[in-house]
Structure formats: structure tokens, C-alpha cells
Amino acid sequence: MIRSKLLLFASLSAVALAQAPAAKEIEKVYPDARALYLDLHQNPELSGHETQTATKLAARLRSSGYDVTEHVGGTGIVALLKNGTGPTIMLRTELDALPVEEKTGLPYASKVRTKDDAGRDVPVMHACGHDLHMAALVGTAEVMARSKDTWHGTLMLIGQPAEETISGADGMIHDGLFTRFLKPDVAVALHVGNELPAGMVAITPGTYNTNADSVRIVIYGKGGHGASPHTAVDPIVIAARTILALQTITSREIKPGEMAVVTVGYIHAGTKNNIIPDQAEMGLTVRTFKQDVRKQVLAAITRITKAEAAAAGAPREPLIDRYEGTDAVYNDPALAQRLRSPLEAALGKDKVVIAEPITPSEDFSYFVEQGIPGFYFSLGGADPEKFAQAKAAGTMLPSNHSPLFAPDVDPALRTGIMAEVAVLRNLLNASTEELRKLTAEQSSH
Ligand SMILES: [Zn+2]
Ligand SMILES: [Zn+2]
Q1: Residue 69, CB half-sphere, CA atoms under 13 Å: how many?
Q2: How far, in Å, from the CA of 49 to the mean position of ligand 1?
Q3: What DSSP string runs through 185-198?
Q4: For residue 188, which of 85, 66, 63, 338 has the smallest C-alpha distance?
Q5: pLDDT band (50, 70, 90) for residue 11
Q6: d(Cα 200, Cα 354) in Å, to the nearest integer?
Q7: Lowest mean pLDDT, pick from 141-145, 301-305, 361-365
Q8: Are 338 and 438 in contact (CB under 8 A)?
Q9: What is the value of pTM for the model shown?
Q10: Does residue 333 have a pLDDT over 50?
């Protein structure tokens, strides 16, 4: 039994090593990918306005032999490469940049300014590294097109607009991404950041980041003179009780160890010290990792808010409006486990680590919600030397969205291409049936 397990492990590793992209495959496409990176970095475009960016990507992918469709969900692009029978695997890059003034001092720093949707003059910078994601995807596309004897199935590359406004993924889905084109068996994406040195990748099995919900509450009272509380119902006192009671959700209702945050970020009520106002408004942010915990917290907020108003004899029920929210990105655990070994074979065992979930939101979750198992992993972007210095000094390197965010391009971009090819080749050597069986637990999270 032990012997056969060992043999199986040995043969899997041999397969992973055989499929690992060779350094010379990467070097052949690297100069073009790097040139594209520098071009994109110097010509960033805001969310929903990525026209030149999309045109550049579409042209490169067409010349690599892909069947490219433009203007999917706005400026989005879909590029397909069919290579016999097998699964369909989707790789996604974002297209958009941010209204940030670049202060890196790099020779290729962005100097672009434009008008935003509100007509304001704003600077533009690829401060989230989406330019590096695009360059990696184009490099990967070329490697995959040149090595069709190493995989089978359909490769589906997408350039998604407006990730920073959490609207582009939804826009592409509504424009028929999975009906006019193909519904993939697995969706893959990566994100570069300074939390990891360039040359490394990190995998987070299960929940990758948080569910985020915004809730507005209006408590209705009865206005009156500050000296005559018996003629009024004071919404400020109800709000005060409500805020404290809401803090008992995480401390008393949620199972210890589960992640839940309830923050009342603002409270507005009243105009003058001797007037009891007739309403009080507050705004909440709610963060959770798990869907069932999220439901429990949102239900508790509603129950407590209504009950506190009723307890005080409020003339009407409070308004409780969850006006926006995004789901956490969920990494299929079986996929994460499967893809660790090809990444280790390609990059080296010590270059692949397991990481904790992070807090920012991301709209890759919209693809996963369509029932597509996802693999979203982190790509190291930090200059390894600066990373070590910062770690020793206990400081942090500039994060994504900072005017100083500057990935260490050469190792990060090379590693990005290497990692994407390793992941795609592994998945595009499986059968559709095998991937379905592997990810069958997906819907139960
Ligand atoms: Zn971002
Ligand atoms: Zn980003």
C-alpha cells in the first residue's frame, strides 16, 4: 500500500517535471512580453475606458494564432485557441489602471492624465500591476501556441475591463461570456503584489479574501423638544443601544474562531443640542470569510436593529438597506492541491508557499459564482533584496494602489509566465471528466 502510494507520487512528480516549461521557452517570448509591459505601463487607461489597451492585446493574441473577439462587456476581449479534445481552461487578466499619480521615479513612469467619469482631470497609473498581468498573459499565450504538442483542449484567454470598479466581470458575463463563447471547466488568474518576493508564488486553498457588505440603517423616532423627552421617541438613544448590541454579534453569536467584522463607520443624527431629531442614520461595513457566517451576521443585524427600535416604541420599523456587496474569491481546495506540484516543478519547491486569506475584494468571484471552479493565486512582485531589508526593519513595501508601487519586473514577469504555463499545461493534460470529478465538492462551500 505504502509502496504503491510512493510509486504514484513519484510518477506524478515525473509528469509535473516533464510538463514544466523550460527556461528557453520563456526566453523566446520574454523580450516581446517585456516591451508590451513597458508600453502598457506608460499608457494606462481608467476602468471602462481600456480601448487602446484592449486593441494592443487583441492584436498580439491574433498574431499568436488565437481567435479573438473584441468589445465583450464593453472593452473586454475573448481569445480562443482550440487544440483537439479536452477541457476548456480560462485565464483572465484585468485591463484597467487607477486614478493615481505615479511617484516611483522610474524612467518608464506614467505621466498620463485624463478626465474621469465625473469630468475631473486625474492622473492615471497602473498602480495595481494589471499591466504585468497582461504582459504575462500575452507571453503565456505565445508559449502555449508554440507548444501545442504538450497539451490538448481549448485555451480561453480573457481581458477583463473595470476590475477596480467591481463591474467588468459581471459586464462580460451579462454580455454572454459563457453562452456566446464557452463555459470553462476551470478559471485561472493571478495577482502580483509586494507581500511576496519576485520569483515566488503563493497559493491560498479555500477562501482567498473576504465577503464585503455595506449596510445603511435609518432609525425612525419622533422629534420633539430636548427638555420634553416624554413627548418624543429619541432615535439617538435607540442608535446608541443598537450600535452596542451589534457588537455582540461577533462576541456572542458567531462561533469563536470564525471571521466576522461589524464596523459602524458613521452615525449622523440631529442638528442642535436642545432638539430631539426624528431619525438617526448609520453606515456599516461587514466582512466575513464564509457564506453561512455572512448570512448569520446580516440576519442578526436586521433582527437586533428592528428589536431595539421596537423596544423603544419607535413609530415605524427601521430601514435596513444592504446596498452593495461582493463575494469572497473561493479557491477550489482540490484544484489548489493539484496545482501545487506543477508550480513547484516549474519554479522550485521553495518558491511555492501557502498563504493566509487577504482582505481586499476582487470580482473574479463572479466567474466562480457561475459554477466554475477557480484557481486564483498570488505572484511575488517585490525586489527580493528590498523585501529582505523591509522584513528585517519591520517595515512594509508600498502596497498595490500606492503611487510608489513598482514590481521588480524581470523576475516577476518571467515567474508569472512560467507559473501560468505550468498551471495551464497541467489542466490541459487532464480530461474534462477528471476535472469535474476533482472539483465536485466545489458547490458545497
Ligand atoms: Zn487594485
Ligand atoms: Zn488588482
Answers
A1: 15
A2: 16
A3: SEEEEEEEEEEEET
A4: 338
A5: low
A6: 11
A7: 361-365
A8: yes
A9: 0.83
A10: yes
Asked whether the beta carbons of 227 and 274 are under 8 A apart, the reply is: yes
Strand ranges (DSSP E) for 1-116?
67-72, 76-83, 88-94, 113-115
User: Using 50, 70 and 90 to split pLDDT, how confident is the model at 5?
Assistant: very low
Going by the DSSP 8-state scheme, the letter that residue 403 receives in this structure is T
- For ligand 1, the distance from its centroid to the CA atom of residue 10, given in whole angstroms, is 40
Q: What are phi and psi of 33, to 5 degrees?
A: -65, -40
Helices (H), 23-110: 23-42, 51-63
The answer to whether 276 touches 226, Cβ cutoff 8 Å, is yes
User: If you measure from the C-alpha of residue 375 to the centroid of ligand 2, how many angstroms do you get, rounded to a whole number?
Assistant: 16
Cα of 299 vs centre of ligand 2, distance in Å, is 31
406 C-alpha to ligand 1 centroid (Å) = 13
**Is residue 320 classed exposed, middle or buried when 0-12, 13-18 and 19+ CB atoms within 10 A define those classes?**
middle
User: How far apart (Å, rounded) are the C-alpha atoms in residues 91 and 173?
Assistant: 15
What's the pLDDT at 441?
59
Residue type for position 160? Q
CA dihedral 162, 166, 168, 172 (to 10 degrees): 170
The rounded Å distance from CA 179 to ligand 2 centre is 26
Neighbouring residues of 358: CB distance < 8 A, sequence distance ≥ 6: 195, 204, 208, 209
Which helix (H) or strand (E) segment is 9 a member of? helix 2-19
CA of residue 64 to ligand 1 center, whole Å: 28
How many Å is the maximal CA-CA distance in the chain? 85
Q: Which ligand is nearest to the CA of 165?
A: 1
